[in-house]
Write a structure and sequence with these properties.
Elements (H helix, E strand, L loop, with lengths): L20 E5 L22 E5 L4 E5 L2 E5 L5 E4 L1
Amino acid sequence: VENVSTTGLDFSNEADKNDKQKTGIIVSVGLGCPKFDDGTYTINPGEMVMFDKYKSTSLTLDGEFYKIVYYADIVMKF
């Protein structure tokens, strides 16, 4: 492997490029989410999205694990 340091650290750009994105199901939508002209949100609870995992915040509430993600960090909707 190219770009490996003497201690074994890999500095190549070919490390798992897809590891940056994660998928999840929308549970709730906040006021920062844009709306269509008819007033409905562009994403809705129950929809699956892909988001940047490094720009999310983890939260555990009543034993349930959640990720808080800003709308701008959502990569795509399935």
